[in-house]
């Protein structure tokens, strides 16, 4: 069983939500603690600003608190939570007019292993190679910049698929799109990232030769 789907700890998400609806506020607090960090990591890559991400996460949990009674118990809690967060993040981006606000504090670390790893591995693996730490710091900046500059619809699906590791069906649920669209859009997002990353490597190579 995937703990990220059911929720880590002794109580599954559904049980905690039921307990909260019965009047147990501590159960809701447990859900917040369980998902706040993961949700922040998703939102901060989406909105590209740490302070804004904190606001969106707080608004998301407020919405969950207010809408818990209407949650369909046959659904998983995590995709529902991320659906609310994605909608809040889109609202935030629209409200600020899609200004580019790239925070230097954004991000989980991504992999710096270059020894034959594909760009998919580079995105998916967050364990740096000890021998590449200095170079890795530079590469993390490059990755963050490329992801921050991607079109919104590609960035959100890349974050869900390669950072948050959502399966296709849950990405479809979060974004309210068919699974087929998830696959094609994710492919487009990875291609976009790969092309931009290759261009950046070529640019760095030209600079190094000067």
What order do the helices and strands come in, and which of them pair?
Blueprint lengths: L2 H4 L6 H9 L3 H23 L2 H18 L9 H19 L23 H6 L8 H17 L2 H12 L4 H8 L3 H31 L1
Give an account of the 3D structure.
The chain has 210 residues and is mostly helical. The chain folds into 2 domains: 1-105, Rna Polymerase Sigma Factor, Chain: A (Orthogonal Bundle); 108-210, Arc Repressor Mutant, subunit A, CATH 1.10.10. Helix content is 70%, strand content 0%. The chain is built from 10 helices and no strands. Helix 3 crosses helix 5 and helix 9 (168-175) packs across helix 10. The longest helix has 31 residues, at 179-209. It is elongated, with a radius of gyration of 18 Å.
Let me know the average pLDDT.
79
Biggest beta sheet attributes? none
How many structural domains in the coordinates? Answer: 2
Helix amount, in percent?
Answer: over 70%
What is the number of beta strands? 0
- Examine the coordinates and then state which fold CATH places here, giving the name of the CATH topology of the largest domain: Rna Polymerase Sigma Factor, Chain: A
Structural class: mainly alpha
Could you name the CATH homologous superfamily of the largest domain?
A: RNA polymerase sigma factor, region 2, helix turn helix motif
């Amino acid at each position: 069983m995937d703990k990220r789907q059911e929720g880590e700890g002794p109580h599954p998400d559904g049980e905690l939500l039921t307990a909260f609806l019965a009047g147990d506020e501590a159960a809701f607090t447990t859900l917040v603690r369980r998902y706040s960090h993961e949700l922040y990591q998703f939102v901060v890559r989406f909105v590209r600003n740490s302070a804004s991400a904190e606001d969106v996460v707080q608004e998301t949990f407020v919405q969950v608190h207010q809408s818990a009674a209407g949650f369909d118990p046959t659904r998983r809690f995590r995709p529902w939570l991320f659906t609310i967060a994605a909608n809040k993040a889109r609202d935030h981006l629209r409200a600020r007019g899609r200004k580019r606000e790239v925070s230097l504090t954004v991000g989980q670390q991504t992999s710096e292993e270059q020894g034959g790893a594909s760009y998919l591995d580079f995105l998916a693996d967050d364990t740096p190679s000890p021998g590449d730490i200095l170079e890795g710091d530079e590469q993390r900046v490059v990755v963050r910049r490329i992801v921050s500059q991607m079109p919104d619809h590609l960035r959100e699906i890349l974050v869900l698929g390669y950072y948050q590791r959502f399966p296709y069906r849950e990405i479809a649920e979060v974004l309210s799109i068919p699974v087929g669209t998830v696959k094609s859009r994710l492919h487009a997002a990875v291609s976009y990232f790969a092309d931009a990353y290759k261009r950046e490597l070529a640019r760095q190579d030209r600079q190094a030769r000067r």
